[in-house]
Design goal:
This protein has two domains: about 130 residues, Leucine Dehydrogenase, chain A, domain 1 (Rossmann fold), CATH 3.40.50.10860; about 120 residues, Rossmann fold (3-Layer(aba) Sandwich), CATH 3.40.50.720. The chain is globular, with a radius of gyration of 19 Å. The protein contains eleven helices and twelve strands. About 35% of the residues lie in helices and about 20% in strands.
Amino acid sequence: MAKEIFAIFGNPVSHSKSPLMHNLTFQGLGVDACYTRHLLEDGDKLKETFLALGLKGANITVPHKEAAFSAADVLDPFAKKIGVVNTLVEREGKLYGYNTDAPGFLKAISEFKNVKTVLFLGAGGTAQSTSSILRDEGYEVTLVNRGEARLEKYKKEGFETYTFETFPKDTSLVKHYDLVINMTSAGLEDDNLPAPKEILSAVIPHAKACVDVIYGKETPFLKLAKSEGKPTKDGSDMLLYQGIIAFEHFTNYRYSFDEIKPFMKKAFSL
Ligand code: NDP
């Protein structure tokens, strides 16, 4: 059988850890495959590029996850519901589309027990898939976002939403949230907090833990949460787990989550 080739598509894509994660795992499990990266400027060209490169599978990152949804011939039910695909697998000439970010995130927060209410700081693309899976799993998700525009769609779907301006100023009116999660890019390449200090000071003290989707650094948000004595977690496990779930799809479940994990995890210590 010819060597199977996989790739990540994105723009930018040079920073992605996915080639290292998947190649270490192919090597560790003795799979004859390799994983490369492809800078894709035009999302409309995703499918033809995938086919021209003769790929067996791909991950898709910003800004092409909606384009990947359109490129798929067959959609997994959850990916279909949210309209966002980050994993494509070729089977008998058809492209199967999945979303592994959301189940990866769900697994990453599963270590926090007795959690019912969750506050999302941010309402962008990552919040879209993760809010949906959390709701499916019975969590109550509330969103607070800087701007109003991105909240419209959540409001329509029945989520409780606030902007920084509409969030209660009177702290006695602020609900208690078991988990507070930074879903924004604030703190990624700057020292910004994801919301005004007054909002964070009202919600962090009541949280059981604080989580950030940003990985590889301690953001100002996580620093603040730690200073309040809260357990914290960054986005590394989310990244790792979405990769493991993608690998399961790539290899048609030939390997279990726990067999894949130690090899893929090595990418985080290199
Ligand atoms: P989007 O561009 O879709 O959304 C960005 C969000 O951040 C919006 O809600 C925006 O608010 C908010 N925002 C940006 N800057 C600020 C700021 N200075 N203050 C307050 N709010 C701000 O981003 P994504 O959803 O694609 O990505 C969000 C984060 O998730 C990124 O940091 C990314 O690295 C991380 N991520 C991590 C993954 C992992 O595996 N760990 C996987 C995918 C993403 P507004 O609407 O007001 O502009």
